[in-house]
Each structure stands twice: as structure tokens, then as C-alpha cells.
Write a structure and sequence with these properties.
Layout lengths: L20 H9 L9 H14 L3 E5 L2 H11 L7 E4 L6 H8 L3 E4 L13 H4 L4 E4 L11 H11 L2 E5 L7 E2 L2 E2 L6 E5 L13 E5 L2 H11 L20 H11 L2 H19 L6 E2 L7 E2 L5 E5 L2 H10 L29 H7 L2 E4 L7 H16 L1
Helix pairs in contact: 1-8, 2-8, 3-4, 3-7, 9-12
Amino acid sequence: MTEPSRRVKYMDLPRQFADGEVVRRVAEEFSRCRFVLGPQVAEFESRFARLCGAAHAVGLNSGTDALFLALKALAAGAGDEVITVPNSFVATAGAIVMAGATPVFVDVNAEYLMDPAGLEDAITPRTRAIIPVHLTGNPADMDAVGAVASRHRLAVIEDAAQAVGASIGSRRVGSIGEAGAFSLFPLKNLGVAGDGGMLTTNSAAVADRVRLLRHHGLRNRDEVEVFGYNSRLDTLQAIVGDAVLAGVEQVAETRIRHAQLYDRALAPLAPHVIVPPRRAGVRQVFHTYVVQVEARDRLMPFLESRGVETKIHYPIPIHLQKAAESLGYKRGSFPVCEAQTGRILSLPVHEYLTDDDLEYVVAQLMEFYRR
């Protein structure tokens, strides 16, 4: 097989740490060994809260636990229902189940986001909270979701795992609902060197409760106020996160520029390639750049043969996974989501791509559909 003339990686994680500065900062801590809740954790939390425009941020061991502990802090549990979407990563529904509640799904719209029009029909007397997902780094319609939640006195927890730095007008995600849950997984726009998460909130009570729960319920070294969990963000990951945070706005701006280039260049390929609508007044930070394509099963190997790596986020919706069988959903329950999962494709959009890389990706797509 002939080698492609160019290789366009889906991600390029080693570039993030190429200058050695992060490694140097981490190595310094080994002379102090403050590995658990060292001072760097609080420093990172403070800077992360400012980034999100939130009053508080609490470092945790994953974005999944950020959702789980938000639910626990808001007293969602056994017998409760929590509404979310079926096209998210499984952790969204998994956190609801971990908390003892039952996930209830609503369909999505053309932007792959929660369709607020489906919320009223999904609410029952058992509904406790709504978790809109800012999928791909695109904020859900928080005004519409919030209006429904307010009418029914429901909590709103933002699943902002993919959306650090995204905003609606002047409001950053993570500062709009009762709590926001962020993932610091290495592939995210703000990723650490392993697992990590962050919960944001404007409620001092929620922040205090989550700080207790993440640390075994210890109020101090000797006194346990509640039975809690072990879900701390460790010091080394906080050091990495704090270093990466310094460049996260530039990362977002670069990804936005790349997405705009794709949007313009791919428009002539409709209907073979469909770019989702873009809302005015919304800052989408493009953790992923997801389009809908025809003949995906042939397109992906073609692009791979041309050196272009692509992904699918996500090929099987949560309600059709074996783990969700007991929820009672079936194929056809969420037609928009299901139609999208057969067509969605994530193109490389990361901050280390060049314009030549992006133009090469577009050229391969054009060649495929003009054959």
C-alpha cells in the first residue's frame, strides 16, 4: 500500500508537554511530597473558578465524579429520576445510576444538544434534576432548559465535560446551573496527565458539601461529618492542570478558527456532508468537530488510507446499550439521536493542526464525494 503524502492526527498529546515546563513543575513536588490536597489544588481550583465565572470550584478525581457528587450534594438518589440525553458519553447516565437515581432521556436537536421541547413530557413527580450536556463544547440552550426547570422546581446540573471556556453571551458554562461538571481527561481542551475533574458552583453550600464528600466526609483530620468517598484531585494533576489552564483560551480560539475554516470549506459538500447550525451569541469551543456524512463506513477507511484520523462520538446511543436495557427504551425511542449516530463523524480540529492540514482533510473529503 502506498504511504499517504500527509498524516493528520486526530490528537497530538505529546506536543502539549514538549517544552518540558510541566514535567519540571511536577518533578519539583517530589522534593516536598504534598501529593494529597497540596496547596496547588486550591490554587488550581481558584483559577478554574475564575475561568468559569463561578464562585467556587472543587477538584475531583474525574468528570464522572463531578456529576455524581453534584447529584449527591443536591440530594438526588434512590427513587428519583434525572433527565438527560442519550447521545452523551456513557458517564452522564452512569453518574445518575451511581447516585441511585434513574436516567430519563429526551431527544436531541440538529446541534446534538438537548431539545428543550421534549422536557415537559419527560417530567414526572419523581423528577429531581435535569442534566443538559454541552456536547462537542457547544452550550445547550440553558435559557429554555432553565425555564422548564424553574417551573417545576428542578435542579440543573451542567455536564460541561467537553466545554471548558464555552459561553452563552457573557455567561460561561459551569456558572449557569446549580453546578457544573468538568472532565480533565487528557483529550479535553484542558486535560491533565491522567484522570481528573472539577465541579463548579455559585452555591457555598454545594461547594462545602462536595468538599466533604470527596474526602471521606472528613471535616478535619479526626472528625467525620458524613460518610463520604475518595474522590480528590491529586496534587500532581493539579500542577499539570494549572499549567495547561494558562493556555486554554488560546487553545479554544485556535479550535474555533479551525472549525470556521471547516464550516466554510465543507459547505459546498452538502448534502453529503452536513455541518450543524451555529447559534449567534454562543461560544462553542470545539472539543470535537462533528459533522454528519453519507457513506460513513466507506469514508472512514478512505480517509485513513489518506492519512487522516477520524473518530465517532458516539456510535451507539446510551439507551441502546446493554447496560440500559432495564430502562425500557428501544430502537425508535429517540429518532433524531438515532439517525445522527449513523452519520456523525469527528474530524481532527486540535490546536496543533496547520491550515495545510485542514485543507488536506477537506481535499480528501471532496475527492471521496466527487468520485
